[in-house]
Amino acid sequence: MRKLKATMVALAGAAAFAIPSFAEVPTGEEFVKKFIISVDKAHDLLGKPEVRFVDGDSPQRYEKEHIPGAVNAYAHDLHYLKDIRECGLPMCPDRAAKFIGEELGIDNNTHAIAYDNGNGPNASGVWFFLYLYGLDNVQMMDGGLATWKAKGYPVETGKGKKPAPKKFKVKIRKEILATKEEVLKAIKDKEHYFILDARRFQEYTGKALLDALEEPGKHIKVQRGGHIPGAVFAEWKKFAGNPKGKPNRPLFKSPKKMKKILKKLKKKGLTPDKTVITYCHVGLGRGSFVFAALKIAGFKNVKVYVGSWDEWGNDPNLPIEK
Hints:
Strand order of the largest sheet: 2-6-5-3-4
Number of strands: 14
Radius of gyration: 18 Å
Helix content: 25-40%
Low-confidence stretches: 1-22
Mean pLDDT: 93
Largest sheet: 5 strands, parallel
Distance between the termini: 37 Å
């Protein structure tokens, strides 16, 4: 654990539709090495043609200030309910290939660095989205824009320059994805599954109803409130090292602190041998953040239910609890 903590500090201080066979997503120290990059190391890559910075925060925040040359991909809006229903993905393959290649200027050889203001969910949403569709070299920037600015590194304002379009080939990593059908199975099979709700408590209890994109440009509010039957509440902030987005703080809590949190969840049925399914409102954000946290903590079998509450709460045929 001490070695992993030291590594986190040092490292946070690298269309056709096919379903290939991928190696298991690494855990612990190897996850940190592969998927987390420090602000200083990210700054060293600024301006390199094969590197693309992707800002996961809202367009309004992006226009206020962002890393020079970064493109904007608001994590919350990378999920379309229409596509979830049609193909079980945040975007159907052809749409995703066009968006990643033409809008973000990313091809399969690009090194993408996802970041947000520093609190983590939106950076994780962009990271998970790109990794899900087959980009190998994609990382989350530890510390986010808050730390970037605190170090005196440059920022720019405005809408940003659209990158030159590239061709991206989609390769779905189905092993990190949970479908509605698998969640229904998980509800009944508590021996092998654990469902974790990463939202706010008001959402979990059904008192708060959020909206999301049904399709580009069309937001709709979820029809029903509550949570998936049997899902255990564990808000993403429990795992966050910097929930308020302050400078010079890590995205994730130390392994030692996360171990204490997971020990409490063990009393509710969480064990390393189970397949853990995380979800939030759209999957790409709080759900993906907890996915990454569990991977750092050493859990091998973790998936994100990308339909999340946007799909579940809008389907009257699916069971809910309040």
